[in-house]
Amino acid sequence: REIAAFTAKPLRPIEPAPAESSEPAHGTAKVEVAEPELCHRYVALVLRNVKVQPTPEWLRKRLEACGIASINNIVDVTNYVLLELGHPTHAFALDTLSDKKIIVRTAQPGEKLTTLDGVARSLKPHHLVIADAKRPVALAGIMGGADTEISLRTKNVLLESACFHNVSIRNTSRAMGLRSEASVRFEKGLSPELPLVAARRAVQLLVEL
């Protein structure tokens, strides 16, 4: 992308079109955006009967060349799409979500969240979170929670691809002292047109793998 801009050469478009079930995702999971001013778009795609396993060598080597360690095929695809399109996505283990529901809201007083780095974090009411029907499961646009991470037991995945308010993400990231590959991109501002493209690209790769 940067080379194309620098050399004025055409960039090969990425136009993913993965095969999709005729059954809508909202029959399996539900999404509620309670803070539309802080979340301009939220795309959720559901993948059933996934097989979590090591990532193919070609993809693992590309990630490692960019300084990202391989984890498993599901997580690695989300990181690959982040590098390829510049838009973060996040995979939740669907069956760990209470009522299989996603709510994009601000934190409630006294709520805590243990993020993927193993740190228990106290949340403030202005922090934007991704919650299920009972508790926060991710710091929106920054890092997922440990309770809903992808594991070898995961059979069904909810793939999140969203567009969050850049100032909100920047303020939360700074207050938490937590910067991630996702937050670095969200805090600069991203197009609301990217979430669907990124989600479909991730699904296309996951189906291929």
Write a structural description.
The two termini are 24 Å apart. With 209 residues, this protein is α+β, with helices and mostly antiparallel strands. Strand 5 (112-114) and strand 6 (120-122) form a beta hairpin. The chain has helices at residues 2-7, 57-65, 73-85, 166-176, 181-186, 194-208; strands at residues 30-33, 39-47, 90-93, 101-106, 112-114, 120-122, 128-131, 136-139, 143-144, 157-164. The protein has six helices and ten strands. The mean pLDDT is 95. The strands form three sheets. It has a five-stranded mixed β-sheet. A three-stranded antiparallel β-sheet has the order 2-10-3. It has a two-stranded antiparallel sheet with strand order 5-6.
